[in-house]
## 1
Amino acid sequence: MSEGSGIPPPGKPPAGKRTAIGLQIRLPCASIAELKGRYADDLRRGSFFIRTKSPRPDGTLIRLDAQLSSGELAFRAVGVVTGETEGGMRLQFLGADEVGRRLIAELGGKPPPALKTEAPHPPAPAPAAKPVRPEEPKRPPPVMSQAEPKPAAPQAAALPAQKPAQSGASGPMIGIDLGTTNSAAAVVRDGKPFVIPSREGYNTIPSIVAATDKGKLIVGHPAKGQLLINPVNTVYGAKRLIGRQFDSPIVHDLIGRFPYRIVPGASGEAAVQLGDQQYSLQQISALVLTEVKSIAEQWLKTPVTRAVITVPAYYNDNQRQAVREAGDLAGLHVERIVNEPTAAALAFGHGRQLRQRVLVYDLGGGTFDASILELNENVYEVVSSGGDNFLGGVDFDKQIVDHLLRVFRERNGVDFPPDRVALQRVTDAAERAKIALSEQLETKINVPFVALIDDKPYDLNATLLRAELVSLTGDLVDRTLTVCSEILAARGFGPSDIDEVLLVGGQSRMPLVRERIRHRFTREPSKAVHPDEAVALGAALLAHSMDSPDTGSVVLIDVLPMSIGVGLPGGRFRKIVERNTALPHTKTLSIATTRDGQTELEVVVFQGESDKAQENEYLGTLAIPGLTKRPRGAHEFEIVFFLSAEALLTITAEDKRTGRRIAASFSTRDTPEEVRARLGSAKAEAGTGMLKWFKRLFGREQRV
């Protein structure tokens, strides 16, 4: 392997501007066909292993020129180092030229974004000494077969059937902000991003789906109009439920907070009941995405089949996968899942060639995210991220609603009745009062004939002061600042290390938020981005960058929002990949049987930060069944955890002795209770080898 000139020595990447290190390698291949055969498995995964005595540290950007044995350029790519060993380093591609993209596509992989068009690379001069040949790549561990696929929720007759879009389809690629309260689509025209207006002329549509009395499904503004009169059959806030198991404590906490019915789905996931029909949360989100897609097609006057969709930075793997499924149901090929704070930073930095460190404070309708990004011209690197998926505008509304119900009880001497329609009217009034208090110091709340108790009608009348709102919701704002402090501390930063604070999300308009941000960071938060539109605009800019190689590519380097690990005997949790690890990333474990005659191995995978497995999000169980009865240690396997640039997890497995594929499955069908029971029984079996198995599992952990 030969390196370009002017390359800094290995070690910590230089501070300041993030630039790619130039690297040339000579491959032992005389033709492209030979290259495809020799490196098929690596290229299919969009990566390359480079043999070198001086591997670069994780996160280093590399600009790679791969040459054939004749010196002719084979392909060019830009990537990030995702694993270093004594023998070399693995490069995960962030972009490639047309030859590289075509190679990956022909081998069945997903091509990375195209590199900026440039002059052909001249043949390299013959080296003075024999070049170091790249290491013969090992057979990569195969993706585990889905032996027990999760059955899809029954497709409702009223749900529009969509033909999934195929990668590489023509037509514009749009950016979509799939929000808790509102959703929006944006597109780039003539180099400028703009939000596509709805049919009603708004820049967003409500993320609400409702079933009418006749069973017809309606979406957006018409569905919001039904919210006050038929809340039982009107779904909002689905973003909090998607990708979660019904039996999880989080979902059970939400059941009493929404007027519609939350029920167990076909595979134990949370679902909703509208009339006599059950819908998965993916189907509900797909209906919202279908409406957004339809609006975009009507405005652009062309079919839309590709999109970049945003998600909260603190979403776990199950939730991210569920959003992809929703996009597929809506007939969209989801080219990329991108975190909302990252998208907002893209909108902020577009065309400005900034070199700044910014904190994105994203307080939306249902979730809160905070991310620190380092902007270096077209490189956007997330260095720390955190959040709270159960902190948003609806929680501020609930504080006001609880206050109004106390006022009702004090004035009338009776409790407010458990009527869902009446409660929804109070919730609507609370939201309007909250918005009004952003512009004025007090507001009057009047909900006439809100309740009927013992045949006597009651009104709800109250005056709410801004000072009262501060008292009611100040602790919620403090929770957001606690998250900000945590992500600063994770990287050893203080408030003075942040150049700009960007406020994103409708709830960030609250004067109390701006006031406490100003006090915490001793500066006025930036007004350079629109709190409701920045995320959609950033998604559109990323989509345009991916779709238009002549404009130059945006390089995004994100981090894992929550640690991923496995359950241990006794219900403990051991982290495998730590939170804030730069993506993409690969980690391997070596495991072996610990009992004579053992016929199956299992690894239960969770995501979260708690030391207790049951307090984290259950992702699934890796099962390796059908092992022949042999002495302990005779069966040994390599388990690979691969996290993509989107923080999507793939787990693969390989028999270390033979290198062959094994019949393994990664199933998410177990309920949290079944998982806890299994871990509990593992504790009981510790004396017979289970505990030794786990010790061996982690004693042989290694990085690739």
## 2
Amino acid sequence: MSKQDLLIEIGTEELPPKALANLSKAFLWEIEQGLKNQQLAFSSSKAFATPRRLAVIVNDLDLMQPSSEMERFGPAIQAAFDADGKPTKAAEGFARSCGVDVSQLAQKDDGKVTKLFFSAVKEGQPTDTLLPAIINQALGALPIPKRMRWGSARDEFVRPVHWVIILLGSSVVPATVMGIDSGNESRGHRFHHPDTFVVNGSQDYESALLKARVVADFSKRRDMIRKQIIEQAENINARVVIDEDLLDEVTALVEWPVALTGTFDERFLDVPKEALVSSMKNHQKCFYLEDANGLIKPNFITISNLDSTHPERVIAGNERVIRPRLADAEFFFQQDKKHSLESRREKLKTVIFEQTLGTVFEKSQRVTSLARFIAEHIGADQALAVRAAELGKCDLLSGMVGEFAELQGIMGYYYALHDGEPAEVAQALNDQYLPRFSGDELPGSQTGIVLALAERIDTIVGLFGIGQPPTGSKDPFALRRAALGILRIIVEKNLSIELAPCIQHAASLFSNLPKADQVETAVLDFIFERFRAWYADAGVPAHVFHAVDAVRPASPLDFDHRIKAVSAFTALPEAEALAMANKRVSNILAKLDTQPSTTVDETLLTDEAEIALYQLLVKLHADSAPLLQSQSYEQALALMASLQSGVDRFFDQVMVNTDDLAVRSNRQALLQQLRQLFLHIADISHLQAN
């Protein structure tokens, strides 16, 4: 079968930079799926993306769709013809859907009953006739939250489309895409090469665009920028701090990247570093630089989208733009310091946290009480925890946070230090927001840990208590992230604290929780469910998670210890047999009307195998008790693994459901002891399913 390379380019006005990479990946995936759905084979494919284009190259694409045999069963013969042998409406409808007359249909047994049957060979279609629908469907399926129209056309896309290239080999595939007829002409850089030019095929695509001052490959463009900004930094003996998200964003903003270094007044270095970085990164899309000691330098690197003959003018323009942003930060910082954090607390009464749950001031009061409670349970300084909770949200009313919302907590830290608050209290004001995202650092002090936990627990309990848990993809208060943050803090900071008392105390602080009677169970289930994704990401099998979750330890740290122990247990040679035995025991006990006693009557033990199992259980209960007490679960399970031969022998030689009622009950009690021994750690019967 003949093959050719396929090139698709959709030329647009400037695409949204933060969405460009995802749009490019999605476009490639949709094109691939469209080709596969039409049984069109190809060897490889690649996506290209710049601010003004989405493109895909597919190599060695079949030029003809393979023929396929189509077979369809219709209604049963009994329903297809009436008593006079005339076709029913069911038969006629089936024939019509197949494009034939009833008389042309065959009859075939489907294994149950004889039915009307249609078969035909569907001839393959030329690839070029299938491509227009594939491309239009791919564009229609892209993840675009808000589409726009332009001109008088009814077509909708993320941005207006101005040109379309569809080349199969060197031939243009006729098509209309987004109201534009396909061709072989592309456009270069908006300023360096605004004229159209002919693209002869996929082999020439990158080189043709490069001549037109466009680096089409997103990853190559990103690597160019990385290399350039590192070189620019080295030229002034500095180190550039590369934020990968910012790097992706500026890559999506330019087609011909040129890195340029600018400067700003050194007086701005008196402003907190984070405010300067936020202004440069979020508002001006610039990279900041540090000296050998990690101190921020009065320089920035910007990425221009053109190779200017007067780069100094481009630099001066960027310096003019960035100066007032830094001046704003300086102004807000100086003004904010004129008022203490504590003086802002009363004004929190005017800020609504959530309509039903009241103001941020009320939340602050609840968090203060909960912080005292948590501090007592983990041995932290209660006075520091209370003070940090009282000041926790005061920086929200500062001018700096009003202008740079992402600096909440960070500015609280600086203002608390300026006010003379204890260093640990100041640090806690920032730590309360940690971790901000997956893999982020955790609070560094005990007070910060307390405040971070109290804040998250109060929010989750409050929203669950008024019936607003996350639903599907909607999680406006980021409760899933908050729950995972709680687990990370407790586990990674090795805190032996139970969640249930904290949730109960938090719930008691609300004046009105319509679902107060359900909130403890709902919140516990919600938080512990976050462990599922945590362990899945860590490579822990689902059955190990279910084995531990079945006994639901009260403490997340205890939960984690058990997960690690059960994971180690599954590697033991005895694990599979013991899991099967526990499953068997579980099934036996589940059929009983009442739970058996856990007390075994030794005088009723007559079989050598049951006597041996009982003696081994007595010994293991005694030997494992101190291990369970110290949460040494891995050692305890390794000890319990010695039960395997005794359990196997018991099931081979002993009839549990014997006719003697007393003996039967005693043997059931023995099995209950066996099961309870393992349930001190996990329900290992869940491991058997693996």
## 3
Amino acid sequence: MWLAGLATAASLGSLWVLAGGVALALSSIAVLGRRHRLLGAVIAALSVQALLRIPAIGFFGVPSLITLVAVAPVLVVGWQRAGSRTRRFIAWTIAGAAAFALVATAGLGVAALQARDHVTAGVDEAEAGLDAVRTGDQPGASAHFDRATAEFDAARHAVQAPWALPARLVPGLGHQAAALVAVTDSGTTLTERAGEAAMTAPYQQLRAKAGQIDLATLAQMQEPVARSAEALAAAQRAVEQVDSPWLVPMLADPVQRFEAKINQALPEAELARGALQVAPGLLGGEGTRRYFISFMNPAEARFQGGFIGSYGILTAQDGKVTLERSGPIEDLSDAPGADHRTLSGPALYLQRYGRFQPARFLQNLTASPDLPDNASAIAKLYPQAGGTPIQGVISVDPEGLSALLKLTGPISVAGLDTPLTSETAASFLLRDQYLTSGPQSARKDRLTDVSKATFDALVGRDLPSPREIGAALGPAMHGGHLLFTSFDPGESAFLTGVGMSGDFLGGAVDAGPSAPDGGGSDWFSVRTSNAGGNKIDSFLDREVTYDAAVDPATGTAQATATVALHNTAPASGLPDYLIGNIYGAPRGTNLTYLGFFTAGTLTGATRDGAPIGVESQREFGGNVYSTRLDIPPGATVRVTFRLRVNVGDGTRAGEDYRLAVGHQPLATDDRLVVRIHPVGYVAVSAQGWGATATLDEAGTVQMEGSPSTDVSLRIGFASP
């Protein structure tokens, strides 16, 4: 009953509690009835099976201690009840087992010493091979992977030597031996696959030349890259199964180092495999593709970022990419039949943004913070403006164009005395272009010309390797300045996975109030949209402060979000289209539409300390609270939202608190301050977006910075 009772109690939460329960029931029967050896054997067998699978409890080693406490009395009583002959048999058996274990330990030690240096050398060579792949040195990569294979193979032979095999039968030692076998087998298979990929996947040839990408080369790369990714995933699973605190340091160090390299390389391999799978379709290998390009400018803000100032149509056919058409957005807004265009959905999109008349004014088709929603509306309206059906939308703003110029080099634009570069393009498009003299039509033509010249260069010049392209464009993609969404579900999933599809907060909040990593938590996003019909928003600075008192015991938070909007625009000295407005407000006044998207429920709102009413709607599984603001030149307006938030399951007191903050790509990044005050608990850990984080003696967390992407933080609580 002692054995079965502890087995049942310790395995609660596991299906093996059933085995313990049956053993406990049988032991009760055994106590009441006549002793039976077979029944005792069944009880012991079931109990031991449950004890061997105790879930993780407390600190490391607790399950083993519980098992020892459960089994020890049975062994002691068994020894006491045994006769002298049985005791001698047990003693000799233990002595023989000890001798066998000693010999097995020595054999494994010799094998481990022989294998250790080979494993270390194999990891070094594999890492050098990956570095060579990243730089495009295929012959060098192949040589490194060949040497890595040889090293891992030598290590595998060492751990499979006859003197190493007995260790697999000894408890404890068997796990050490399994770890060596997993690393050496996985290493051999992995480096063989990587070497094959390095020789048969021509990375150096995968370059766009004058807008042409060789789809045959893409197809040639798919299988070897997929095999490498599968080998990495298999190696990761194998090593995770054997990596354990029980490993002795001599084995734990190379195992953990090997695991770290796999974890580093696997995301890159999965990304390459996914990209190779979707690239042929995206590049027109399965039929001509047309993508609408919305050139945004946050000098006149919309919730996604900026208004659409001009547009383009990018065509892809059999790997050849061309800019088919481009022009100012007015060409589409004022196209024949403008007053008869209709937008039938999405329903929530129309409910939230129909007031901005996107069917009539296509420049407002970035009204939503979610690119896929905007893209769906563009796909419905562009054919009604004289265009052909499209298969996706590319969204790019001045920072995105600057990133593209890192690939193309400087471009010459009609009407500009000097070429635009990656260093000057953003400032020119955000503000400088509006300060030049001349008629408004000429200014708009130059804006269109910049976009056209950039994409003409992009599809007409030779581009660098995929890795160099990723390095140049990555920050712009993650910051929402360069986005791409496809209407094909598989392609859309890939683009979402790499953070390029422009989904609001990565698309993770649509199912309900939860942070991107799930589990029920907190999120918010501040968005502003120009309401004055001018280009004044490059003069708008925003500071967002979020104070939340979090009660882990109830899973609730009382939060206060303060949005400070500072208008640095002057009252005079600049053109009307920059600091004037369509409503006759004093020049330099910033008329803006503020939207606060949140997982919480509003309990009150103020403007500069005075209570105000706000519009309340639902979107993205949460709430959005909106108000119209007039901000005089040089003034600061503060809007405060008081919120009640369900941040988790209160039945699991002390679980982590997670907060996600959505980023709006504007001319200037927000200043963000987050303060989290635990109620009845203290914060013991804080993982944030890379900004400065402090954790004071009271267990309060403060994080601040100017993030340029969506960010999230995670805070762990403990009882005081």
## 4
Amino acid sequence: MLLATPLLLLATALAPATVQAATSPPSYTNPLRPTIPSGGVVENCADPNVLRGRGDEAGTWYMYCTSDPLNDARTSSGALDFRRLPILRSRDLVHWTFAGEALPARPSWASATAKLWAPDVVWSSTYDRYYMTYAVTDTVDAVSGQPGCAVDPAIAVAVATRPTGPWRTMATPLVPPRRTGAGCSFASTIDPDVLGGAIGRTGTIYYGGFRDGLQARPITLSATAMRTTGTETRVSIGHRYEGANVVHRGTWYYLTASSGQCCNGAMSGYGVFVGRSQSPYGPFLDRDGVSLLAARTGGSPMLVMNGNRWIGPGHSSLFRDRGGQWWVAYHAVDRAQPFFAGRTGFTRRPPMLDPVDWVAGWPVVRTGRGPSQTRLPGPAAQAGQHSAYRPNPAPLDVPGAAPAGYSDTFDGTALAKRWSWVRKPAASTYAVKNGQLRVDTDPGQLYVGQNTAPVLTEPAPTGDFVAQTTVHLDVPGTGCCFGATQAGLIVYGSDDSYVKLTHAAAGETRVTSLAVELPVVPAGYPHYGSTTAGPPGATTRLRIVRRTVGGVPLYRAYTSRDGVSWVRGGSWSDSALTGPLRLGLVAMGGAGHTARFDELRVWRLR
């Protein structure tokens, strides 16, 4: 069933090795550790954006970060030392140096407590200027028109003749707060991205987030400003994506965007997904032809967790090095040190770098291996260089033999004796008939301190395995809102220790969600996290692979709409989920709907 997986196309899709230049770029290990001239290193650079300088700056690369502390250093008052849009500088894309803050102050139209997020910088060949767009999280009442509202974000622009400034901020927002309803109801006007690293006088800007989706709009430059022209075009559904980054390759425009929780400490489930279009204004479709505008939301994984040290990778910045190899800068979370010292709950996001391969026309980080934690050949930062990086495809998780006594196709009229319920529901709410198990969705939850949902389980095999089900969930294909209604597969240790993969409703979107709950965590740490895989369908096949790596069990998601083409999602590492385990099915999170399961199939991992 995995024959359509793009990773198998690598043997023919990858280009031959490039002859290496005499001067080899240096190697690197994540995370990047930029130095600070006054002492110390940069340990946090959220939402990084990478740009190569032009003119006399052509040999220097720059990275721009969200306003945050650089590390755990404190001010004289004992508070974390926030920096306003930090700038990092490098000659080799491996060794970086803190080059200062972009702005001396917030824009005049920003509130006194506004945060400045996600800068994006583009160079204009027409004006030989650098244009920085960034998000301002809270605007003054005169701009938003809503007194006392602290969530009325806007997009700002600053212009400079050099990549490090000085920057001159426009006196008014490029994109003002956008209403979605009465009162303090505003869209997520955040995370700007101008198409391309270099443009002339016109271009396209993308912005937006979970509230009201991603938008695209034409822009025009002058020597001192950037202006929007034309109208907005929505390019993604709401409640799913943020952090857009669009690149042009061949005849295609690739929209990459982040989904999930960016900042949930050691349970951050962020990931980067992609769709493509032959127009910069979409519609953008994923590898399976599903639109990012669809309620059963499209998006093919480009960068997701692999179960190693790094979790929640996201907010990507794609670029090509001087030898033509594609790379991505992004932030991630170290599961062992997820928070700033003394600030449990404030997630630290170090800067990361990894190569991007194009497999059958689609970008994927390290041919599916995800974030790296070992030394790799670095990028070609200077003309005449070529990176020594070579693709090394990720191994596939292939089902092997099926052990007796675990699979069930729900023939007959009753559940087999090996099945049992945790919190058995009313007999009228489930039935076995015509080769299916019908279960009415329950309003209960399976969440920290809210364990009320029924769970149907059977014993799981020992060791590594593959478990799969096919579910038909009758939540309408469009519309809002259905709470957290979901149905799918679970690997169950207890109510507080499990991994589940479900087709879930979330606002106006439908997603596949790989979630994990841990029974014991340090004080103040979250117990629950989730990440997304491929798009669901009216019928969705869900597969959890349990594979032990270095003595630690990893649980990886695979999803499919047709049973032929499978999407490989992220992995949770869960050493707390130990035997005796059970496999099960859930249908919960909202009453009034029905889930039908065709089977539960179990294999050994080949």
